[in-house]
Amino acid sequence: MKRILSLFAITTLLFSSCQKDLTTKEKEEYIVKGKEIAQNTVKKLGGNLMQQMKKGGPKQAIPFCNTAANPLTKEVADKYQVSIKRTSHKIRNEDNNPNATETAILNQYLASLSKGEKLKPIVSKDKEGNVHFYAPMKLEAKCLACHGTVGKEVSVKTDSLIKSLYPNDKATGFKVGDLRGIVNITFKSE
Ligand code: HEC
Fold first, then answer.
1. Which of 3, 53, 95, 151 has the lowest tally of Cβ within 10 angstroms?
2. Is 96 a pocket residue for ligand 1 (Cβ < 6 Å)?
3. Which atom of ligand 1 is nearest to 87's Cα?
4. Is residue 17 included in any domain, yes or no?
5. 14 falls within a domain
């Protein structure tokens, strides 16, 4: 009897969570939208960053990142009426610390990457009914000056500038193709 009851409980649980879940079609729509927003965020941040790098190298671009990265991200978010968060398993700016769900997704991506699998976006609904689009952010060659190995791509001078702004910086030592972090785009429920 006990076993039947617990089976019943599990089935009800599965069923109710299925009911709240998004349909495949809805998920596909969020993936299209999420990709568009993520690309626009990267374009906005990357474009501004590279301009600063050209003008004055890391010495100019790091203070720029420090003050402008989150406001620029918010500009894109406001345009699409979503919220956008960049986070990582190796954080530089503690304002970007991951929550429990983001940590689980980062670990999932790290495991997939170590198996040589392709990383795909993830769409899921939270308890409040908000839909989240998560996508990986890989490290590219142009990121190395500020996220590569200290003493190699990141000069000691650049590292001390980073440390002066972020004393607990964990975001160096990356190689091209590594998982740098994720973007979490939240579509708020009405
Ligand atoms: C000029 C130096 C510089 C370059 C180049 C750079 N970053 Fe950063 N990055 C920073 C700084 C400074 C921060 C902390 C400020 C912020 O963005 O919130 C940061 C933060 C981040 C974060 C947010 C998570 C965290 O640790 O706080 C991600 C994700 C990130 N960078 C990815 C990248 C990627 C991917 C590239 C290359 C396409 C890149 N960065 C290039 C300096 C740089």
1. 3
2. yes
3. 24
4. no
5. no
Atom of ligand 1 nearest to the CA of 183: 29
CA distance 104 to 84: 18
Task: Give me the pLDDT at residue 5, please.
Answer: 54
Which atom of ligand 1 is the closest one to the Cα of 145? 5
The residue contributing the CA closest to ligand 1 atom 21 is 92
For the chain, the domain total comes to: 1
Instruction: Give a yes or no: residue 81 inside a domain.
Output: yes
* Domain around 156: 22-187
More confident residue, 174 or 3: 174
Q: Give the angle subtended at the CA of 101 by the CAs of 111 and 104, to the nearest 5°.
A: 15
What share of the chain has pLDDT > 70, as a percent?
89
CA of 12 to the centre of ligand 1 (A): 44
pTM score, two decimals? 0.89
